[in-house]
Structure formats: C-alpha cells, structure tokens
C-alpha cells in the first residue's frame, strides 16, 4: 500500500514504519514514495543504501531516483528477517560515502539518500524501517519422534508418566505459534490423558495391569493457532513396570520321581511352576519349602534361577531296605512378598512321590577294627576268632566269602565261608611284624552279586607275653677275694628273655635248702636301673669262709604286684688282686684327695713350673679308715714284684680273642708318661674278656660302712669360693687358662 509523503520536522525526515506481509506474491510491490521539500531548479535525486539493497540479501528493495518510490522486489520470510531499516540522504554537495556515525542497529538498516543533480545531499540521511508481518507458514515440530515413559502397574489415576513438547517457528506473539496437545490414539481403554497446554501425560483411570498389557503406544498431536492451525504428530511409548501382584502356581498337583538308594548329593527331579510376573525379576523368583514327609532331612529343594522350577535333591543316603517310598508336600512362594493391592490367595502346594530303587550294596564289618588277644606260642590250628561281615541287601539273596588281604608274617589261615581265623604257626616274641605287641591283618569280605562288591576289615591281634623263660645269672659263678676274718662283697647279675611283666626286676635269695649260709652270707639289692631283662644285687660275706667255697643261690623274676627297688647290673667276679682299672681309680681318688688337702694346707705353691700331667704323691688313703689294711699300696708302687693271677673264665658276651696272654706293660718312667699309662690301662680293661659286661659299673673294692671319716661332700661344702684365691691358676700355663677365666 502507498503511504503519505514524509513530513519534515525541524529539518529532519520522519518516516513511519512500513509493514509488509511475508510471502507477498505480487512483485514488484510499491512500499512507499519519498519526497523532499527542498526542491532545486534542477530537481532531486533519491537513493537508498543498506541490507536488501546493496548488502545481503541483495535486490530485495529499490527506489526510483527521480520519484522517490520504494519497491519490494522479492518475497520476504519473517523467520529469516522480521524487519529492515533503510537510510535515505538528500543534499546538494557532491556525495561521498561517509562512516555511519550511528551505532549498529538490532536489525539490518536500509539507508535512503536525497541528492540534487550535482550529487549534493539535500537532507541528512534518515532510516526507513520496513516491518515484515508474520503469516502462519510453519508447522509445529516435536523435539523427538518417539517419547518413552514408565509407570508401575496398578498406578492410581493422575499419576504423571512423562511430558511431550513441540516448537513453532512462527511469531510467538501471535496465534501462529500458539500450540495445543492432544492424544489421537491409545486404544479403546483410554488409560492415559494429556495436558493440552503443557503436554504432560498422566494416568486417567485405574486398572493398569502389566500381565494384561505391558506396553502402551500413544499417538500425540501438536497444533498451532490454539489447536486450529497447522498440526504435527509423534509417538509416546509407555512401559508398565512389574510389581509382585501374582503368586507362583504349580503346573500340576502331583509329581513322581525315582532315585537309587545310597545316592547322596544327586538331583532327583523337578517340580514346575508358573508365575505371571516379569520373568527374571524379584517378583517372579520362586522359593520352595518341603513341609511334610521328610522328618530325617534326607531331601532338599532349590530354585533353578533360569527356569524358576524347583529342583529336588538327596542330601543323605537313602536305604531301600529301611524305606522304599517317600511322599513329600512342597509349597512355593515368591522371594518378595505380594503387594497389598494384589488379590489374596492361598499358598500353592504340590505332592511329590519319590520311589527308592534297590541297588547292590557292599558288605560291612560291624566291628572294625576287631581287637583280640592271643597268648604267644599258641599252637598252629588254634581258632582265635570268627570275623564276619553283614550284607545290607536283605531283599536280595547273596552269599559272602572271605579272604586274607594282608597277613605279612603268614601267621593266620581263614575259613572262606565261615570267616573263622586260626593260627597257621606259633606267634612268638620278638618279631619284626609286631608293633608294640600287636599284629595287624586285613580280612576281605565279598558278595556274589554282579558286579561283586567287597569290604575290608582290620584284625588287630595282641600277642600276650607268657613266662616261658627262666632268668639266668650272668655269669653263673663269681670269685671273692679278702682276708680271713674280714667280710667282702660279690655282685650278681641276671637276664631274662621274657618281656614285662615276666622279666626284670628279679628277686634274689640264698637257697632255702642250705640255711647255714645265712650265718656268713646275706643278699641285698644293689641297683636295677639297667637294660631291660637285666638286674643285679650284692652278696656280702660277714666273714669269709675257707678259701674256696660254693654259694648256692636261687633267682626268679619278682612278682609284678610288688616291684623290687631298682638295681644296676654289676660284675659277678672280683679279682683277688686289683687290676689296672682299679689301681687307676684308686690312684685318681688319692690324687683328688691329696690335691684338696694340699690346697687347704697351702702345700701347692704358685710357681711357673709346668704342672700338666703330673701326679704329686702327698698322702695315701686307700679305701676307708676302717679297712686300711685291706689294701696293699705296694701293688700300686711296684706291681712288677707280684706274680700274675690266674685267668678267670670268660663271660658270655665277651668278644672272641686269640687266647694269647697280654704282654707285661711298661711302667711309666716319669710323671709326664702317666697319661699314656692310664690310657693303656683303660684299653686293656675294655678288651679284657673276663671283666663284667660293658654296660655295668666296674667295682674295684668295697670300703665297708660306718667310716669315722667325714664324707668328701663335707670338704666341698666347707671349702667355698669365698675362702679361696684362684688367681694362681693363671700361672699354671695354657692348660689351665679356662679354669683361670672361670675362677680367677
């Protein structure tokens, strides 16, 4: 439409905004005619500049330079440019492009210019605003093609599920962009509604049941012009989430199964259930319980997580002979409790019948191991026990047979039908096959089924000791030396091949058939702590009988109920003349006593002389003060003056020798050779076959009793470390350096 010419106010152009509809189809279209009141004799030239003219978008607007008419040359789109501004210039001076003093406008500016024929602007530039009027040329658009929402089944009406929304590119201030929402299709139930203004979808009525319909597909629409204009559609998908509103149910009321007896840890079968709730969800998972029919707890039932069925298994072995059928009552329910809104229903029950099949079972020894006792030396062929097994298959006719599976000494024989065990040879001590007096054998029992089964029984036989060996004196004779009128002592020993309680300790006594022996002889236990089967006692002469006497004695094992005091095996022969070991022992005692006395009296002075391996003869004491005359000290000092004694008989355990008499020993020529002399004497005593057994004490003489002298322990107790000065030990040489460190 054509507008009135602009009015000039204070020499400035005032042009009202020009409105033009978008999508105008009549092109070119006159928008306005501009006139300047500064008419010149030569006329006025009009021009416009800006977007739509000489700037992008080009060629939309134009002006007639002589008439000042502004034309629209192309269709406008409000969604691209909703307005344009044109600047006009009118003047006389030659026109030159000048920088725009005004700041950029919010919209593209269209500038108009008025010039005279010489190119001089007649008016200040002014803006021409062109407003594009909106038309409803854009449909609404949903932000997505498919909307997804979830809601619990059984939700109350008015429960909101989700919101759909759309946009419109038209002018939001007009009805062209005023949108309204609606549900075009959702099925016949009409379970959902939508807010026309906001697009929020909510439940419209009760009764949503996932098991009936788990997914709802809604077609929603958005329309502009407040619902009367252009429209568009989208899809809203609503999923119903499951709740536990359906209990599990058995597919049938009775189930039948079979299982072999003696089987444990195996599955018997399945019971099948159905649950309408969502498979795999907690509302679907079933839990089974055995209510009746299994008082012993022989069965167990679990849930198969994949199928939700119940799996019945055996946890304890079943015995067909005891019970061949079971009737179980099984219940099922969900792991998660039912929702309060779910209809009440009783718990589902089913009957499971299990038949136990009979199978061949191995025989069994009721007493395993069997322990018996047998006397040693039992004659061959003596029955010692009957060791049989039982067959648990009472419903099957079977025969058991027996065999010896392990008999390391081949001592036994077994009846293969009756299971009677007899001795095959004498059972004697000692044997490498006995362990602590017990003999172990294994018996095999086997049935005649196909295939046959067997069992092994352990037979433990205790071999009881029998007193079948008499004790023996070791050696059977002894020699005692002494002086007339003086007493002496003879040591006796004994051995016995029997084991306790028929061996040591022993009881010694003088023969009752010779009572006169009690006037001169008495027997007392000396020591008994030795090797098993050995014992010893002392025979003491009050006054020696004639030079050659026979002493009858009796020996038998002591009763087990009255054990004797311990004894130590000792030699049964004492030489009339002390041999080298006895001499050296006496010598050692004299040396110790003499050195103690020298220390007390200060006779051993500090000196730098080498005191090693020297014997200082300070005194001689012999045995005790009361039997000084029983010793001949000359034998110690001059043994070469005395004739050698007769060779005594050999003992039983002495090593074999050539029988060659020992050569005379060379006496020490100086005190430094005393160590060699002692070692040679010790070796001679060890190799002498006439001395007592190796594990006995060597008794050289008996000192008697009732000595008036104080015991040696009194010397040690009276001579304390506080009374002694041991500094002199450091002067005795390197041999005494250790003692000097300890006592110095």
Layout of strands and helices, then pairs:
Layout lengths: L6 E3 L2 E3 L3 E4 L7 E5 L10 E6 L11 E3 L5 E4 L10 E12 L16 E6 L3 E14 L7 E2 L3 E7 L7 E4 L2 E2 L12 E6 L6 E3 L5 E4 L11 E9 L7 E11 L7 E2 L3 E7 L5 E6 L1 E2 L11 E7 L6 E5 L6 E5 L10 E10 L13 E10 L12 E6 L7 E4 L14 E6 L5 E3 L5 E4 L14 E9 L7 E11 L7 E2 L14 E8 L10 E5 L10 E7 L6 E8 L11 E5 L22 H22 L32 H4 L36 H13 L25 H7 L18 H7 L1
Parallel strand pairs: 3-10, 8-9, 12-19, 21-28, 29-35
Antiparallel strand pairs: 1-2, 4-7, 5-8, 5-9, 6-7, 8-10, 9-10, 11-14, 13-17, 15-18, 16-17, 18-19, 20-23, 22-26, 24-27, 25-26, 27-28, 30-33, 31-34, 32-33, 34-35, 36-37, 37-40, 38-41, 39-40
Number of helices: 5
- Strand runs, count: 41
Shape, principal axes of CA atoms: elongated
Helix % is under 10%
Architecture per CATH nomenclature, i.e. the level-2 architecture of the domain at 249-357: Sandwich
The CATH topology of the domain at 249-357 turns out to be Immunoglobulin-like
The CATH H-level homologous superfamily of the domain at 249-357: Cadherins
What class, by secondary structure content? mainly beta
Spatial separation of the terminal alpha carbons: 143 Å
CATH class of the domain at 249-357: Mainly Beta
User: Which regions have little confidence, pLDDT < 50, spanning 5+ residues?
Assistant: 1-11, 91-108, 529-534, 546-550, 558-631, 642-659
Mean pLDDT: 74
The biggest beta sheet reads: 5 strands, mixed
What portion of the residues fall into strands of 2 or more residues?
Answer: 25-35%
Radius of gyration in whole Å, from Cα? Answer: 67 Å
């Amino acid at each position: 439409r054509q507008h009135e010419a602009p009015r000039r106010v204070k020499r400035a152009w005032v042009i009202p905004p020009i409105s033009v509809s978008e999508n105008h189809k009549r092109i070119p279209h006159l928008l306005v005619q501009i006139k300047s009141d500064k008419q010149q004799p030569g006329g006025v030239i009009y021009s416009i500049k800006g977007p739509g003219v000489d700037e992008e978008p080009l060629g939309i607007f134009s002006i007639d330079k002589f008439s000042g008419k502004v034309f629209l040359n192309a269709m406008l789109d409000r969604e691209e440019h909703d307005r344009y501004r044109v600047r006009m210039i009118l003047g006389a001076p030659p026109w030159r492009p000048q920088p725009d003093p005004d700041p950029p406008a919010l919209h593209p500016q269209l500038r108009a210019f008025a010039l005279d024929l010489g190119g001089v602007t007649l008016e200040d530039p002014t803006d021409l605003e062109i407003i594009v009027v909106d038309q409803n040329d854009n449909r609404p658009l949903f932000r997505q093609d498919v909307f997804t929402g979830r809601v619990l089944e059984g939700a109350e009406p008015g429960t909101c599920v989700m919101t759909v929304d759309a946009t419109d590119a038209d002018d939001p201030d007009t009805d062209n962009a005023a949108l309204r929402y609606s549900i075009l299709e959702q099925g016949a139930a009409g379970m959902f509604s939508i807010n026309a203004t906001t697009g929020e979808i909510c439940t419209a009525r009760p009764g949503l049941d996932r098991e009936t319909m788990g997914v709802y597909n809604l077609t929603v629409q958005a329309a502009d012009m407040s619902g009367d204009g252009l429209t568009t559609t989208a899809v809203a998908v609503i999923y119903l989430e499951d709740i536990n509103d359906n209990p599990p149910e058995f597919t049938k009321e009775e189930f039948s199964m079979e299982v072999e007896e003696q089987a444990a840890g195996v599955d018997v079968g399945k019971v099948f259930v159905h649950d309408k709730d969502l498979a795999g969800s907690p509302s679907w998972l079933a839990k089974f319980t055995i209510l009746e029919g299994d008082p012993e707890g022989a069965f167990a039932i679990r849930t198969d997580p994949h199928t939700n069925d119940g799996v019945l298994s055996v946890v304890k072995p079943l015995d067909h002979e005891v019970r061949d059928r079971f009737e179980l009552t099984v219940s099922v329910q969900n792991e998660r409790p039912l929702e309060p809104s779910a209809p009440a229903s009783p718990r589902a029950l089913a009957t499971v019948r299990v038949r136990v099949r009979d199978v061949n079972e191995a025989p069994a020894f009721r007493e395993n191991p069997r322990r018996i006792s047998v006397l040693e030396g039992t004659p061959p062929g003596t029955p010692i026990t009957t060791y049989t097994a039982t067959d648990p298959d009472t419903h099957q006719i079977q025969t058991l047979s027996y065999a010896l599976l392990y008999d390391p000494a081949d001592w036994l024989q077994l009846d293969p039908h009756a299971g009677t065990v007899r001795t095959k040879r004498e059972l004697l001590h000692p044997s490498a096959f006995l362990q602590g007096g017990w003999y172990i054998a294994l018996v095999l029992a086997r049935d005649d089924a196909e295939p046959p089964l067997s069992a092994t029984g352990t037979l433990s036989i205790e071999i009881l000791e029998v007193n079948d060996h008499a004790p023996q004196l070791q050696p059977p004779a002894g020699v005692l030396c002494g002086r007339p009128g003086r007493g002496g002592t003879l040591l006796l020993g004994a051995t016995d091949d029997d084991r306790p309680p028929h061996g040591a300790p022993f009881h010694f006594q003088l023969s009752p058939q010779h009572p006169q022996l009690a006037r001169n002889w008495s027997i007392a236990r000396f020591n008994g702590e030795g090797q098993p089967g050995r014992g010893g006692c002392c025979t003491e002469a009050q006054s020696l009988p004639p030079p050659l006497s026979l002493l009858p004695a009796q020996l038998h094992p002591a009763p087990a109920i009255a054990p004797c005091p311990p004894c130590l095996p000792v030699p049964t022969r004492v030489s009339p003349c002390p041999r080298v070991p006895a001499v050296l022992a006496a010598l050692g005692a004299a040396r110790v006593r003499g050195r103690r006395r020298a220390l007390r009296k200060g006779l051993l002075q500090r000196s730098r002389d080498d005191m090693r391996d020297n014997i200082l003869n300070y005194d001689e004491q012999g045995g005790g003060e009361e039997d000084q005359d029983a010793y001949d000290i000359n034998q110690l000092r001059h043994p070469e003056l005395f004739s050698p004694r007769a060779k005594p008989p050999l003992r039983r355990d002495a090593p074999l020798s050539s029988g060659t008499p020992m050569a005379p020993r060379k006496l020490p020529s100086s005190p430094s050779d005393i160590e060699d002399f002692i070692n040679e004497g010790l070796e001679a005593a060890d190799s002498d076959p006439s001395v007592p057994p190796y594990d006995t004490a060597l008794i050289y003489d008996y000192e008697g009793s009732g000595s008036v002298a104080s015991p040696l322990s009194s010397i040690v107790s009276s001579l304390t470390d506080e009374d002694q000065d041991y500094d002199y030990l450091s002067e005795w040489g390197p041999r005494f350096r250790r003692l000097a460190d300890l006592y110095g």
